[in-house]
Design a protein that fits this description.
117 residues, mainly beta, 4-stranded antiparallel sheet
Amino acid sequence: QVQLVESGGGLAQPGGSLRLSCAASGFTFSSYAMSWARLAPGKGLEWVSRIASDGSDTYYADSVKGRFTISRDNANKTLYLQMDSLEPEDTAVYFCNANMGPPYDYWGQGTQVTVSS
């Protein structure tokens, strides 16, 4: 079965960095685009970034553009999100997503990121 397991969250100071990972299994990872999304307290789910199946194209929400970098390692079936210049507004639970076309839309359990001094 499809499994997505995020890790790497934690507490960071404003201006600091964190690197999230998402280990994938149960499907042909290299065949699908992957995304990150986040859920902040009191807000709806926000799409953060997307990467093409071969890593050739990347897309970012305006709120993180220039600060976050998405990447992937298809050999090791892992998705990454490098988060730099963190702001308190980045505090959220971060989820990785594999959308293979309805109804095949899979999410991990999420990892908490807290940005605070």
